[in-house]
Design a protein that fits this description.
alpha+beta; 7 strands; about 40% helix
Length: about 180
């Protein structure tokens, strides 16, 4: 093998060191950009959560005005569950829980003692009180993966004010 053929064969491609340096630089760039992308996604999920809660609020207001939702026949309509009168046309609602934008949403209606009753509770026999459900309801929105899909838990009720608190990050603590 002559010198020019040897020189050509050694110059074809990158050396192992050059490849390792290039991969290291790309890894550093990716590591510096990834937190920004995750933060932007969480912010977008939180904005979606607040807007979804406002939509639920407006639908609850409309539902309470419907005479067809008057379980105790006193002329006042009751508020309802997700998929049970509120946001019925959404495929993301399953068993009274709405999954949207990295968050889960669930409506509670009060029983005779004022304790919250979920859709599952109502299906298993613990029913909301029609007189209290004419006046009160509340909805929680919590991140499906705290610290990754969102940092906050949100709350709204019949007053329409959205409240926020930091989400629990520990996997041993139950969702609201």
């Amino acid at each position: 093998m002559n010198a020019s053929a040897l020189e050509r064969s050694t110059r074809a491609g990158f050396t192992l060191v050059e490849t390792a340096v290039a991969i290291s630089i790309l890894a550093l760039l990716a590591a510096s950009v990834l937190p920004s992308v995750v933060q932007a996604r969480m912010r977008a999920n939180e904005v979606t959560a607040v807007e979804t809660l406002r939509t639920i609020y407006l639908e609850e207001l409309q539902l309470g005005l419907l005479p067809a939702r008057d379980a105790d026949r006193d002329g006042k309509g009751e508020y309802g569950y997700l998929g049970g009168g509120v946001m019925n046309n959404l495929s993301e609602v399953h068993d009274g829980v709405l999954e949207r934008g990295g968050y889960s949403f669930e409506v509670w209606l009060p029983d005779a003692r004022g304790q919250g009753v979920t859709w599952d509770d109502a299906r298993s026999g613990r029913k909301p009180d029609p007189n209290r459900a004419e006046l009160y309801w509340y909805c929680y929105a919590w991140p499906k993966r705290p610290g990754f899909t969102g940092r906050s838990v949100y709350f709204i009720n019949e007053d329409g004010e959205v409240l926020r608190r930091p989400a629990r990050v520990s996997s041993t603590e139950p969702a609201p």
